[in-house]
Automatic annotation (TrEMBL):
<keyword id="KW-0547">Nucleotide-binding</keyword>
<dbReference type="GO" id="GO:0016887">
    <property type="term" value="F:ATP hydrolysis activity"/>
</dbReference>
<dbReference type="Pfam" id="PF00005">
    <property type="entry name" value="ABC_tran"/>
</dbReference>
<protein>
    <submittedName>
        <fullName>ABC transporter ATP-binding protein</fullName>
    </submittedName>
</protein>
<keyword id="KW-0067">ATP-binding</keyword>
<dbReference type="InterPro" id="IPR003593">
    <property type="entry name" value="AAA+_ATPase"/>
</dbReference>
<dbReference type="InterPro" id="IPR027417">
    <property type="entry name" value="P-loop_NTPase"/>
</dbReference>
<dbReference type="InterPro" id="IPR017871">
    <property type="entry name" value="ABC_transporter-like_CS"/>
</dbReference>
<dbReference type="GO" id="GO:0005524">
    <property type="term" value="F:ATP binding"/>
</dbReference>
<feature type="domain" description="ABC transporter">
    <location>
        <begin position="7"/>
        <end position="239"/>
    </location>
</feature>
<dbReference type="InterPro" id="IPR003439">
    <property type="entry name" value="ABC_transporter-like_ATP-bd"/>
</dbReference>
Amino acid sequence: MKTLPGIEILHVSQKYKSSRDNTLTDISLTINRSDVFGLLGPNGAGKTTLISILCGIIPPSSGEIGFYLDGRILSESERKRVIGFVPQEYAFYEELSPRQNLDYFGAMYNLPKGQLEIRREELLETLGLLKSADKKVSTFSGGMKRRVNLAIGIIHQPGILFLDEPTVGVDVQSKNAIIRYLQEINRQGTTIVYTSHHMSEAEEFCNRIALIDHGRVISEGYLVDLKTENNVLDLQSLFIKLTGEEYRD
Ligand SMILES: Nc1ncnc2c1ncn2[C@@H]1O[C@H](COP(=O)(O)OP(=O)(O)OP(=O)(O)O)[C@@H](O)[C@H]1O
């Protein structure tokens, strides 16, 4: 894929009414169409706030965000169709089965019935959920719930996908399955923006990153370049070098 812009973030700042200081200050980033882009940083850095703004869940206090597809800027209604979001919290109905959940969320995107059925079965199979497809999600393990959460976020085949810690609290098998699947859809053309606290996972998965600390971008670029410039061998060392050793809570 060529290096075309996917998302342009210009001077985004955010101040919650209840807090004294800005949570985000003057964030400007360009995310390319072909990227797996990691938003990384210590606890409380502002990653979830930024991803929530990018998904349109909360408006920024100031600044602008442009979404591009095939080199042209998307309208508000196009954005809603093109964007997918996999939140950190589970976003499904525990009392429903994966099949019922996918039918419900697919209908919310107005997917035609036949198309939805094909997509639903494809996702259940690829994410290893077929055998439990009619059982209540409340009975599932953490790894299975994460995979249901992912399936729901991508039911409408988004062109731009945001994921907030998609592999938190899951075993290696589920983590690998999720990352492999995300790599595949990125190869097929989906822009991916994700947050994680797993540095080895992010190192394997992302081509570009932004390190956020105290609500500001303190470093951004291609991971290989950042490691060379900072004379470190891995992402974890880069993270510690740039954000320090002290606790953030
Ligand atoms: N709705 C809100 N109202 C007020 N303050 C908030 C709200 N949401 C988040 N914050 C504050 O904004 C700061 C950034 O939080 P955010 O969740 O965006 O960080 P994060 O980088 O995702 O952290 P973590 O890695 O712990 O998930 C924190 O100090 C948090 O307490």
